[in-house]
């Protein structure tokens, strides 16, 4: 985190050199990307609930709210908000069915992001052995050094697993029906392509365009190659969502992938932090507005509590 705070200081030092017109274009492309992604998610939910009418503005509000929460809360906490806000508008919807819709919504992302990481490995900007060396090691010896605590933890885990198995066995049939419901759009190839794949493919065009304009805004060489490298950074940071918005992780990965490309260390930090701050601020502002309008509260704790209880906000 200290590295990230240092990078923030570098960003503010370079603030006067930012080209604001390109920064505006980058953020505009980012917002348009969200519009297409929300439309794709709406198509997935409508396929799961064909008899129910889900307005686009509802799907957009819920999606933007979730993106805003994910910008400041690690481990995809915003996904709970997305599902809750939609369930508030579709009372007969279930979380067991809504959760798979989020999986379907990220399928194309997984394929494209995976292809970009393979591309980065193939051209040598992301050597496999160096990538592995940067993955955190797990010290299994700690279990042997604390035998008593390990035994208690294991016993508790087994009890929880047994109770979970009993609960799941009783509810398995209903749960399976709801899960299949969430994946319903996959059984209609035409609807899946035009309702999900096409708008998400367009959103990816705007995603790369946004990165291109961010590069120009902060004075880094702007071309498709560097925009794709910046996307690889974002994809890798998403794999390890330990910090809100990937703070710190993205800065280290940006320096690593852009090494040897004639870009100074301070400029890379200014670009990475500046882009991160700009996107987080836009996501957060849009998300707070959406939550305030749809849920009438700005308390994430209250939203999560209501979501777990299946209640509606006052």
Structure, explained:
- The protein is an all-alpha fold and 314 residues long.
- 76% of the residues lie in helices and 0% in strands.
- Helix 6 packs across helix 11.
- The two termini are 38 Å apart.
Distance between the termini: 38 Å
Specify the structural class: mainly alpha
What is the ordering of alpha helices and beta strands? HHHHHHHHHHHHHH
Overall shape: globular
Query: How many β-strands, per DSSP?
Result: 0
Low confidence ranges: 134-140
Largest sheet: none
Q: Radius of gyration over alpha carbons?
A: 22 Å
Q: Specify the helix fraction band.
A: over 70%
- Count of discrete alpha- or pi-helical segments spanning 4 or more residues: 14
Mean pLDDT over all positions: 81
Quaternary organisation: single chain
What count of domains describes the coordinates?
A: 1
The portion of residues forming beta strands comes to: under 5%
What descriptors fit this protein?
14 helices; mainly alpha; 314 residues; 76% helix
How are the SSEs placed, and which strands pair?
Blueprint (H helix, E strand, L loop, with lengths): L1 H12 L6 H29 L7 H17 L5 H12 L5 H11 L1 H16 L5 H6 L7 H5 L1 H36 L6 H29 L6 H16 L9 H9 L7 H31 L4 H10 L5
Helix pairs in contact: 1-13, 2-3, 2-5, 2-10, 3-4, 3-13, 4-5, 4-14, 5-9, 6-11, 10-11, 11-12, 12-13
Short structural description:
By secondary structure, this protein is an all-alpha fold. Helix content is 76%, strand content 0%. Helix 5 crosses helix 9 (147-182), helix 6 (107-122) packs across helix 11 and helix 10 crosses helix 11 (224-239).
